[in-house]
Amino acid sequence: MYAEPRRVAARKPVTVPGLRAMKSAGQRIVMLTAYDASFAAQLEAAGVDVALVGDSLGMVVQGHKSTLPVTLDQMVYHTALVARGLSATLLVADLPFMADRDVAHALEAGARLLGEGGAAMVKIEGAAPHILEAIAALTARAVPVCAHLGLTPQSVHKFGGFRIQGRARDAADQLVEEALAVQAAGAQLVVIEGVPSSLGARITGSLDIPVIGIGAGPDCDGQVLVCYDMLGITPGKRPKFSKDFLAGRDSVAAAIAAYADEVRRGVFPAAEHGFA
């Protein structure tokens, strides 16, 4: 049975420069993952600012234990699906594991995610020298970049698991330095994941570009969650930094709208969703 998509009132498209203007105005940025056109349409209807096609799809869609098996072809495919469900929401896509191993591969991945996938920005994990070089090369060629620091899932084996980062003073200082380095390399957005709330606030205050938190406390310029986590349908234990927005509501649309509203009003995340 075919159901005609719900018509959504037109809104001004979110742009990469517009995100920085939102930070300057103190307007919180709402980001949420999506992996297909139907979920993308729900984000669009709720007025979500940024849709992220994360390589988290390897875990929540494909059922892997990490994000590492996700390929570039799969990322391009899912990005194109999401793009078809969006009009005003800005689309960001992850560079999958080892797509950033050198500048040539990063440029190829960026070209495919924007050209074939329809993304407006790519996300890249870490701040190692070759990553900074890739960020500079991508942005020089008109591929906007979102950096991802802190608990970077592609480094799960290096970290020995999905562990909170930046608790020690020297580790916190290093993350601040890395955030400044990716900004200097040309990144126009940063996702900071799995760090103490105080460090999330410190990094946000140190940068001119917007900082999006996930498990990084309430003081970031915006928030992102995996859509299945915020709907309470991811198998297993829900992450401490997430919240089941579907509980007590009668639809996915209502849950996404509630998430967007709570992020914008500074209600989510609350203290219990952060780390000391």
TrEMBL record:
One of its GO terms (cellular component) is cytoplasm. Its cofactor is Mg(2+). 3-methyl-2-oxobutanoate binds at D55, S56, D94, K123. InterPro entries: Pantoate_hydroxy_MeTrfase (IPR003700), Pyrv/PenolPyrv_kinase-like_dom (IPR015813), Pyrv_kinase-like_dom_sf (IPR040442). The active site is at E193. Its EC number is 2.1.2.11. Its main location: cytoplasm. It is an enzyme of class 2 (transferase). It catalyses: (6R)-5,10-methylene-5,6,7,8-tetrahydrofolate + 3-methyl-2-oxobutanoate + H2O = 2-dehydropantoate + (6S)-5,6,7,8-tetrahydrofolate. Pathway: Cofactor biosynthesis; (R)-pantothenate biosynthesis; (R)-pantoate from 3-methyl-2-oxobutanoate: step 1/2. HAMAP family: PanB. Catalyzes the reversible reaction in which hydroxymethyl group from 5,10-methylenetetrahydrofolate is transferred onto alpha-ketoisovalerate to form ketopantoate. Homodecamer; pentamer of dimers. Belongs to the PanB family. This is 3-methyl-2-oxobutanoate hydroxymethyltransferase. The lineage of its organism: Bacteria, Pseudomonadati, Pseudomonadota, Gammaproteobacteria, Lysobacterales. The gene is panB.
